[in-house]
Amino acid sequence: MILLFKRYSPLILLVFSFSCSTQKVTLDPITINANALGANIYRGSYPRTVDILHTKLDLRLNWDSSAIQGKALIDAKPYFYAVNQLVLDAKGFKINAVELARGYDRQPLKYSYDGKKIQIALDKSYTRDQKFSISIDYFAEPAKLKVGEDIASPGDRGFYFINPDGKDKEKPQQFWTQGETESNSTWFPTVEDPQEKMTQEISITLPKKFTTLSNGYLDFSSDNGDGTRTDSWRQDQPHSVYLAMVAGGDFVIVKDKWEDKEVNYYMEPAYAKNAKLIFGKTPEMIDFFSTKLGVEYPWEKYSQIVVRDFHGGAMENTTATTFFEGMNLTEGEYQDENYEDIISHELFHHWFGDLVTAESWANLPLNEAFATYGEYLWNEFKYGRDHADYHLNNDLRTYLSNGKSSEKDVIRFDYAHRDDMFDDVSYQKGGRILHMLRKTVGDEAFFKALNLYLKKHAYKSAEIHDLRLTFEEVTGLDLNWFFNQWFLSSGHPILDIDTRYEAASKTVEVNIKQQLVKTQNAAYRLPIAIDIYSNGTRQRKEVTLAKAEETFSFQVDTEPELVNVDAEKYLLAEKRERKSVAQYVFQYENAPLFMDRLEALQGLQKSVSDKSARETFIRALKDKSWSLRLMAVKFVPQLLPDEQNQVFEQIASMATADPRSYVRAAAISALGTTYKNRSIDPIITKALSDTAPSVMKALEGLR
User: Fold this and answer.
1) Structural domain containing residue 127
2) Residue 21 predicted with pLDDT over 90
3) How far apart are CA 202 and CA 195, in angstroms?
């Protein structure tokens, strides 16, 4: 799941600031919970007493009262120990009948109901080899559930009718569900446990004018002859209860495919023409992830639907991802933000989260950290490492910007409320940890381990130790140190790095001190690559920092132009290092990575009076990374007048021709400030045809 208040403000996340327009998303307020100091809380996995095998639902929607008339047929069996009762989650129902089902025969059963759970007395005690079926006739009214009494927040209603009476002419009539974490029991009776996996059938009766979507495939559709239609959806592969969904409204289905599987995009008629612009890379993503993981996309189909008033950015319902209305993009808006990260994130969940599910909310990073890292993998494949590292750095900045985040374990069993797990620790920090794991074991081992993990736990649940044991099986290494240090602990290291060259002994000395931001005082174990640039060559030295302070020495014949510590730029750490202007200039020109160039420009920003620093920013106007070009454009006011004149033609060209809309917008703003005394009317006239909102806003600022 994507939470937009946590993610996807990439302009804010840049380590330098600039002024551009972004889409504002307003969400329902949420309550942030905290545990009392010293609270003794353990949130483990739920005990499993009954295993739901299959759920069949027959739903009829009542638009006048925003309610659901439902019939549920639940096939189940004891998990291990014999049972003589079944307890189901069901919030705010009116129960009409509870019966034991044997074929077409029905036997009434005794039950008690407190408004949240149905406790059903079975007709006998069943062993784990015996199945039983329970039929429940009910009426659900999620819209009437009271926050603070029936549910914790407005986002827990589970089932949402949008503009049910049709009076809002600016908004279509729609319905959609949101099950994560435990909200699907507001519209059907079930066991809300992420470990609980079931197959399902869902039939929905509604006005013929509406289009529906659910998990799996559309088994059949029937015209009822009274202005309604019943669509019956079926999913034959088991998935977690919280991933069940239904949605519908006036949607155009834009069809696509990957191999022999349907890939469809559900959008409102006004936006459907841009469906393939927005979602059209999905088949390529499916193909890439299938190949990279060595596990073919494991579900019947893949659909993506854009709805109104969604609570968050998107939700990875199995085979049917729901997206917030910000995905209703025009061609101009697509130039600013294409939300490809959200699309890849939710798709990657179909392996990590849907196929293999975290067994408890405490283990949520097994879902969300992987989906976040799926964004990196797609960006790396499609757009190159520079682009992927830019986004990875934003993830680090997001985590570091929240001081409280360093106090939380990644896998944590002491959360106040399960919703608290959906934060920058589970998402951004977790994704960065997976990147470090990849760099620690190497690419071949990393992806072979992911393949084995997925195959071992397919259509099941897993916990963090399952992931560790799989990596250890593949690599032959004891990785307890890594998992204990990063996944089962809190904080991150702060590194003070000091490098000096001793000419007499021809020795480079790299001193690293760890200042710990961590509940315990143990030093981190950090494998680090150090690149030494000397006499036109680069030597890589691999070291492991394991103490609070260590000095590493290397023989080098002449004083290096640069000693690049953390040369792979993958450490989840704050680094403090002092370099000369000459070293930063050399780093920008010679070190290979996006983060090398970014760190160099950040260092040179403090040396405006140095000509070589300014010249480096001038060269950065042609950097292959749009974010660094943007940084260079923002630096133009600090150039000397003759240098500003030197780059005028380049800034003018960038205002209309740069591939990235944010760079074009910044260049236009620069023309209106730094070059306001020059003739820029022809440039502005040409820019007026630009439809990107950021550029349009920049043009408005010139008036």
Assistant:
1) 52-250
2) no
3) 21
